[in-house]
From TrEMBL:
Belongs to the peptidase M16 family. This is M16 family metallopeptidase. Residues 36-172 form the Peptidase M16 N-terminal domain. It comes from the Bacteria. PANTHER family: NARDILYSIN, PROTEIN YHJJ. Residues 1-20 form the signal peptide. Keywords: Hydrolase, Metalloprotease, Protease, Signal, Zinc. Residues 190-367 form the Peptidase M16 C-terminal domain.
């Protein structure tokens, strides 16, 4: 009885936490098409200003890849009113911090300041949008930065090229077929006009969302947004082609030799629906079930119990048009890639045949609820969620309802989605090998 009462109390406490986490927001459009989202939270004197542009690697010319990631760097070079090298100094001198990141479908810039420096954040992002300097000095400087980043993260990093290899072997028509970092050769051969045209096309208010989250006065903030962003001219409408891939009907095989590794790796990748589809949420739960933490099925089986693998992994790569589900591992000792493949396939077959236990199902729900709470525990996380939910899911209020989707996923759905997508004849098998080693 005591245990039952404690369980009830725990559920009530968690329910109160989740209700308290509901995010209130207001959204509207400026005349130039900029979408604005405001989330006011005066509990701490900090505020995040963020701008997400609907441009990622998928929007690039196949002969000019890497531009979106390049602009993540280039748009810190300075503006008509901010000299080169001054951006970070302005942020730091106002007690703030900021960063940017790029992915398949979007580019995101943000700063978090003490709330009395909100105007500085709005000014910085309006400058980035309205007055960027796309000059030869900045372009040449950032080419060197991106070259060094590729050397560090891809060319000289163990297993660093896995994403690039999966992209090129899983997609054949869609622009997801090249990695976000793109081609250094394309960047090297690009002209200054190429970069100016890319900026003019995509970094415009009607292709962006501005989020202000944290401690601010609403009407005063709206006035500043109007003053700083209202005068920015609307860009031309962007035409995006919906490119469809042919279904995968037989297993795809690829091999890559990495001079930076000594232990081979197996990567198995399945092409799955875009991230807004319900099946994509189910795939996320499957990924967590198979390989999220030391208590997951694959880790316990292959690393702990059978000691066949040094490491195992399973994770989704979310995209607006398509996603990918990747799983695999590193064989240990005398075990081979084929041994891992057999064991992983056996675990997938269980998913496709039997319902997971009610205990494992509840454990999954708990993990996603904890993740929901953590992702919305601060204004930076809330700003990012609001921007992505509006831009990539077309539903800003998803920040409050997404957890209900995960709660509603049944054990039967998990089994059916595993049957539908995790088929041997619908995947890529990438054997990632040390240089000059033959495949097992």
């Amino acid at each position: 009885m005591k245990r039952h009462l404690l369980s009830v109390l725990f559920i009530l406490v968690m329910s109160n936490i989740l209700v308290a986490q509901e995010v209130a927001f207001e959204e509207y459009d400026l005349n130039n098409g900029l979408h604005v989202i405001l989330h006011r939270d005066n509990s701490a004197p900090v505020v995040t200003t963020a701008v997400m542009y609907h441009v990622g690697s998928k929007d690039e010319d196949p002969q000019k890849t890497g531009f979106a990631h390049f602009f993540e760097h280039l748009l810190f070079e300075g503006t008509k009113n901010i000299e080169r090298g001054e951006w970070d100094k302005i942020v730091a001198s106002n007690g703030g911090q900021g960063n940017a990141n790029t992915y398949l479908d979007r580019t995101y810039y943000y700063e978090t300041f003490p709330s009395n420096s909100l105007e500085t954040g709005l000014w910085l992002e309006s400058e980035r949008m309205m007055h960027p300097i796309i000059g030869q000095v900045g372009v040449d400087t950032q080419k060197e930065v991106v070259q060094e980043e590729r050397r560090l993260r891809v060319d000289n990093s163990p297993y660093g090229a896995y994403f690039e290899q999966i992209c090129k072997n899983l997609f054949f028509k869609h622009p997801y077929r090249w990695a976000v970092i793109g081609s250094l050769e394309h960047l090297a051969s690009a002209t200054l006009d190429d970069f100016k045209n890319f900026n003019k096309t995509f970094y415009v208010p009607n292709n962006a969302v501005l989020v202000v989250a944290g401690d601010f006065e609403t009407e005063k903030t709206k006035k500043m947004i109007s003053d700083y962003f209202g005068p920015i001219p609307k860009g031309a409408e962007i035409e995006r082609n919906q490119i469809k891939e042919d279904p995968i009907t037989s297993t795809l095989y690829a091999t890559y030799h990495d001079p930076n590794i000594q232990i081979p790796a197996l990567f198995m990748a399945y092409r799955t629906p875009g991230q807004a589809e319900r099946d994509a949420y189910v795939i996320n739960m499957i990924s967590t079930y198979l390989s999220d933490g030391e208590s997951s099925k694959l880790y316990k089986k292959l690393v702990d119990d059978k000691k066949m693998a040094l490491q195992v992994f399973a994770f989704p790569l979310d995209g607006e048009d398509y996603s990918a589900y990747i799983l695999g591992g590193l064989p240990l000792g005398e075990y081979t890639i084929q041994d891992l493949k057999d064991e992983i396939d056996a675990e997938i077959l269980k998913l496709q045949t039997d319902l997971i236990s009610e205990k494992d199902h509840q454990k999954l729900r708990n993990k996603f609820e904890n993740g929901y709470v953590n992702s919305n525990s601060g204004v930076e996380g809330i700003a990012n969620s609001l921007a992505e939910d509006y831009m990539l899911y077309d539903d800003t209020n998803l920040i409050n309802t997404q957890i209900d989707i995960y709660r509603s996923i049944t054990r039967e759905e998990i089994r059916e989605v595993a049957k539908k997508y995790l088929k041997v004849n619908q995947r890529l098998e990438l054997e990632y090998l040390p240089e000059q080693q033959d495949a097992n």
